[in-house]
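PROTEIN DATA CARD
Card holder: Ribosomal protein S12p Asp88 (E. coli) methylthiotransferase
Chain length: 330
Origin: uncultured Chloroflexia bacterium
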Amino acid sequence: SAYLKISDGCNLRCAFCSIPSFKGDMRSKAMGAILGEARELVEAGVQEIILVAQHLTDYGRDLKLKDGLATLLDEICQVVPQDRWVRLMYAYPQSITPGVMRAIADHPQICRYLDMPLQHAHPATLRRMRRPPDTERTAALIRELRTAVPDIALRTTFIVGFPGETREEYAALLEFLDTMEFDRAGFFRYSQEPGTPAATLEGQVSERVKQRRWDEAMAIQQEIALRRSRRWVGRSLRVLVEGSGTADDGAPLIAGRSYRDAPEIDGLVWARGSAPAGTFVDVRVERATPYDLWGTLVAEAVSAVSRQRSTLSGQPGLAFDAVAASHLLS
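Structure generated from the sequence above:
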């Protein structure tokens, strides 16, 4: 996997974020340059290209491009073969257009996965965050995405304990979480960032309350994630192998990611069987946990790439080959 930055900087001025203060306004990379980098990655054998930016879905606005991200996706899929992946990270929900939905649905290269940090779900909290407060519009967008792109995996992040967050506002976040049922959701306890407007807001929430709210939200999301994962039991998923080793009983075992799993932040698919790192395989899912799926390898593609020896933490006795990737967002 490799990360490909398509723009830098951000035009938004969220109250909790310091990125614009040192990155400046958004500057889109020329489309020709992006396509050239994508072509080089394909020629190098990279199996997954991850498009990143501080504000991915605003790509091309400064270049006066109409529906810039959708246009870029159409073009990049002329460069990336259909048997490889293109993944989208850090999408801003208010900028997700019908053209972007159409591109995700139409191009087999584009993972049916969208990461769109929402940060909160109560209008008053969102206003203090200097984020769009229309949660009904966001909910409608999520429903539209799931209709336009069947089986799309949606990831988001929320902040708990933002200054002034009342019990009512926090309860609205939990209700939104339960209603929308995100496949993946991360939670951050608000932390004062020096120099940001939020750092001096009144109503700073105590660390004890932040921790309690974080614990509760995480527990609720784990139940939701388990329900979403269980929908895959009995079905097959295409998996990009990241490692291979042996199970406790000595049987061969592979670890990889499906289209539902971004590297480093999401789960893994574990399957009995053998396949080299950097190949795509089909796995029949037999068991689900909130983050990982378990199954048996049923078919294997032949798109091998170069491998790097590593060890998978948290799984005793399993050594594997991991595809090297460089994260360009920072």
